[in-house]
Amino acid sequence: MDPMLGLCDLDQLRQRRSAKWRSFPSDVLPAFVAEMDFDVAEPIAAAVRESMAAGDYGYGHIDELGEAFATFAAFRLGWNPDPATVFVLPDVMTGIVETLLAITEPGAGVVVNPPVYPPFHFRVDLSGRQIIEAPLARDEAGRYDLDLAVVEEALSRPETQAYLLCSPHNPSGRVWSSEQLLAVAELCQRHQVPLLIDEIHAPLVLPGATYVPFLSIDHELADQAIAFCSATKGWNIPGLKCAVAVTRSPALQAAMTERWEARLPGILGVSGSIAAFNAGLPWLDAVIAQLDENRIMLASLLAAQLPGVGYVPPEASFLAWLDCQALGLGDNPAETFLERGRVALGRGPDFGRQGAGFARLTLGTSPDLIAAAVDRMAAALAP
Ligand SMILES: Cc1ncc(COP(=O)(O)O)c(C=O)c1O
Asked: Which of 32, 50, 150, 345 is most buried as measured by Cβ atoms within 10 A of its Cβ?
């Protein structure tokens, strides 16, 4: 591994006090949460140290973050957002929920594409809105895709008041094409449904895929939508709690401004994110190269040790969505892997009923720990 990423030494990782390392007993290998095991990028650590040395533990100030995100987006994502359209958040889900509260009525329908990131389901429910499912299509090879006819049916329902799209998509790992995004824009416009796009995994698009930020597309709807991004997945700093919302819509900008208090981040998150966007690109490149290697290695390991598991390598990020239906482990195979193999995977049914029979494995670690996870999964199936 690149020395910038560290060694992912298990004894050292077990010293961490984050939820990943404290949610299970110490004989369990955790691979369930969307976090990576690599050492943090030095510019981020330096920025956090600097804030701490200055006794700076207050609320974050946004000015430089908007600039830093816009510069990163222009350099890496092919998109030139105006920094004045960038709003700070403590995290992406807060931005999504606050937006839904601002623009939809109690009981309104919110369209999502399951299987999808579990909080999309329960945070919408907890906000007093209801999920309208527009499930992804899945072909015989196990590759997922947006089903535009199904999306249109969901958008056309009278109760639908918002569409929450995940791009790149968690857990399928799909990166949507500009044609697909234009088609989504067209459908939202036709049915007058506001669009929220969660682009948190965008910094981690892997070789071979072409990522298109929604607000960069040439469509009127890009002026009305709101996108969410963050350094927290790309640079693995979710505990610093900081994200951004970007929108050119005056109504959504007003909603963000009005909700300033819900959007307050901490200074450590803002400082760390600025450092990531401004000075974290060599580290990001090292991670992307490692994830590229890991996703291919996982395919070989599964073919050799767990041939019954279906796996399509992700096009972005570090999440492997494993089809375990052929193993006969029921709806929640992660339970068997945990109980019998002592490896904690993400629970498929949490991603929607379409996730029954699936489990999610995190690839943001060393090849050795991926091999150890697969060994443990295989051991769970041993007679
Ligand atoms: C698609 C997606 N959105 C949002 C989040 C959570 O982001 P935050 O902690 O900024 O709310 C995650 C975390 O894994 C995610 O995968």
From this structure: 345
Q: How far is the CA of 34 from the centre of ligand 1 (A)?
A: 8
Determine contact, residues 327/121, Cβ cutoff 8 Å.
Answer: no
Instruction: For the beta carbon of residue 17, count every other beta carbon within 10 angstroms.
Output: 8
Whether 34 is in the pocket of ligand 1, judged by its Cβ within 6 Å, is yes
Indicate if ligand 1 lies below 6 Å from the C-beta of 232: yes
Specify burial of residue 340 (Cβ count, 10 A radius: 0-12, 13-18, 19+).
middle
The preferred substitution site among 92, 121, 198, 201 for testing ligand 1, maximizing ligand atoms within 8 Å of CB, is 92
| pTM of structure | 0.98
Alpha-carbon distance values, 317 to 70, 173, 221, 224, 235 (Å): 21, 7, 26, 27, 11
Residue 316: DSSP 8-state:
B
Tell me the three state secondary structure of residue 52: helix
Q: How far is the CA of 93 from the centre of ligand 1 (A)?
A: 6
% of residues, the chain, pLDDT over 90: 99
Dihedral sign for Cα 230, 83, 104, 60, please.
positive
C-alpha pair distances (Å), 88 with each of 4, 65, 335: 28, 8, 38
In this structure, the strands spanning 243-247 and 310-311 are unpaired
Q: Which atom of ligand 1 is least distant from the CA of 120?
A: 3
User: How many angstroms does the Cα of residue 119 sit away from the middle of ligand 1?
Assistant: 8
- From residue 260, how far is each of 59, 247, 248, 284, 364 by CA, in Å? 12, 15, 17, 30, 33
343-364 per-position pLDDT tens digit: 999 999 999 999 999 999 999 9
DSSP 160: E
The 10s digit of each residue's pLDDT in 217-243 is 999 999 999 999 999 999 999 999 999
Structure tokens at 358: 């699936």
**What is d(CA 122, CA 334) in angstroms, rounded to the nearest whole number?**
20
* Residues 110, 130: Cα–Cα separation, whole Å: 6
Of 195, 190, 243, nearest in space to 223 by CA? 195
The answer to whether residue 283 scores a pLDDT higher than 90 is yes
Mean pLDDT of the chain: 97
- Say how far apart CA 165 and CA 197 lie, in whole Å: 5
